[in-house]
Amino acid sequence: MNLPDHAGWKKMANEFTHQTKAFIGGDYVDAQSGKTYETINPATEKMTAHVAACDAHDVDIAVKSARTAFNDGRWSRLAPRERGKVLQKLAALVLDHADILALMECLNVGKPIMEARMADINLASEALKWYGEAIDKLTDEIIATPDNVRATITREPMGVVGVVVPWNFPLLMACWKIAPALAAGNSVIIKPSEQTPQSILKLAELAIAAGIPEGVFNVITGHGTEAGAAIGLHNDIDCLTFTGSTAVGKKFLEYSGRSNMKTVWLECGGKNPNIVMADCPDMDKAVMNAAMNAFFNQGEVCAAASRLLVEETIKDEFIERVAMIGKTRVPGDPLNPKTNLGAIVDKNQYDRVNRYINKGQEEGADLVLGGDTVTIDGTGLYINPTIFKNVQSTMTIAREEIFGPVLAAISFKDINEAINIANDSPYGLAAGIWTRDINVAHKAARDLQVGSVSINSYSSIDIALPFGGYKQSGIGVDKSLHAIEKYTNMKSTWLELD
Fold it and tell me: Which residues touch 381 (CB under 8 Å, ≥6 apart)?
């Protein structure tokens, strides 16, 4: 694979023209109001574009376009195999445009270019391809009835699906949601985060090129308080799927109740425990995973291993080794292929993470690593990897999702205490357990109140494996065949024969 070097990526960035318009009904369009907002490159703190600031009027136009497309069957009544072929073509186009899509993620999010190029874009393409291959393999049901009755259970597309995605993995999170929604035959309206619209706007162009009909794929740009709320409150959107903070997820539940009781699926926050027992079978692997899964993507990951639970007898040595790995994550220009820690997405998030770091020190946690900020050539929103030890479960940094490169280390005496600490959280997204004792592993897998448990690994993921949470981490799952169920209605049909 022949990828650009640092100079090559910088040249591409300097020549890149940002898309400024929303995508409705098959065309790029300005907001009805004519209003725009600025996007900022967090690595340079410079404005990159003035993007259409859509509101309820634009959402209404998009919904009408999507509803018309759904009702006339141009996509919804296309044979599943034919829809699958289009999604597979879209997956291939994503790979064909992987460099430019990765550049967009880098400039919008501030993430390292190679992480965007080799992880985010490839996984986004994989999701589209997997659902494209899967959709014609699903079957409906016929139940056992008397001879004069035929009773079926069928799945039908819901109609218009609103998709609201976060800024940390814009394209990947979008594809996790639109792939099963489109595969099932729905029309979609996507609202990217206001910070990170570019890759999803490019995806709209690729969707048309792949053969998705006009009106089926729409992108609404703008602020969550206006465009996002309008999607949540619209009476002709049948389903809404969201990834983001728990606080915003609760707002979408409220919007559903205030409007048409649309189905709402939420993948929200996490404060994920990574439990390391003294009998861990591969301590080197556990140390590396603890660091990488705390600091990958600047810690801006809902499933980040942000709580490190270590058995007392090994805590000091283990935390010291994690800190040594943390020191190798050095903030740098995200366009440099050698950079492994990028910028925080925007000033608000940068300030928020720093407030949590200050709070940790105020509440008595011991700072082991980092806690400070840096700039690159005098600018940029960079925070060094930060580790606290001797953290108590009652401390703010142990309870609230920080969404930055901050790791809170907590010690425990035995597996029962570890599980109690792990479950003492409003969240329940992911967890890890490191042990050679099969009984301990089984107990942890059974008793941890989370949607995903990794044993002797962390955040082990596969597109065929469901991803979702317990408690305030969300409702429903992304990925796997089960995600298709979110975007379909179940219909029972009872036919009595003569």
Answer: 42, 43, 45, 110, 343, 344, 345, 346, 347, 349, 350
Q: Are residues 248 and 363 in the same domain?
A: no
User: Is the same domain home to 28 and 133?
Assistant: yes
∠ CA 389-390-391 to the nearest 5 degrees? Answer: 85
Average pLDDT rounded to a whole number, residues 273-279: 98
Residue 426 resides in a domain: yes
The per-residue pLDDT for range 312-336, each reduced to its tens digit, is: 999 999 999 999 999 999 999 999 9
Same domain for 127 and 14?
yes
Do 376 and 317 sit in the same domain of this protein?
yes
Answering whether pTM is above 0.90, one says yes
Question: What pLDDT digit, counting tens, does each position of 357-408 carry?
Answer: 999 999 999 999 999 999 999 999 999 999 999 999 999 999 999 999 999 9
Domain total for the chain? Answer: 2
Q: Is residue 467 part of a domain?
A: no
Residues 209, 34: contact at Cβ < 8 Å? no
Give yes or no: residues 195 and 309 share one domain: no
The structure tokens 């609404």 sit at 220
Parallel, antiparallel, or unpaired for β 386-389 and 406-412? parallel
* Helix 98-109 with 170-183: angle, nearest 10 deg: 120
**How distant is the alpha carbon of residue 45 from its chain centre?**
24
CA distance to 80, 116, 279, 417, 425, per residue, from 420 (Å): 46, 36, 19, 5, 10
- If asked whether residues 112 and 195 sit together in one domain, one would say yes
Cα–Cα nearest to 93, from 177, 11, 171: 171
Active site residues: 267, 302
Distance CA 79, CA 420 (A): 50
d(CA 159, CA 162): 10
Identity at 236, one-letter amino acid code: D
Same domain, 480 and 450: no
Average pLDDT, the chain: 97
Cα four-point dihedral sign 489, 486, 192, 215: negative
CATH number of the domain bearing residue 101:
3.40.605.10
User: Mind giving me the DSSP string for 201-216?
Assistant: HHHHHHHHHHTPPTTT
- Taking every pair of Cα atoms in the chain, the longest distance, rounded to a whole number of angstroms, is 83
On whether residue 469 sits in a domain, the answer given is: no
Q: Which residue type does 162 have?
A: G
**1 within a domain of the structure (yes/no):** no
DSSP state of 244: S
The domain of 307 spans 273-462
Amino acid at position 123, single letter: L
The enclosing domain of 386 has a CATH number of 3.40.309.10
- 228 and 346 belong to one structural domain: no
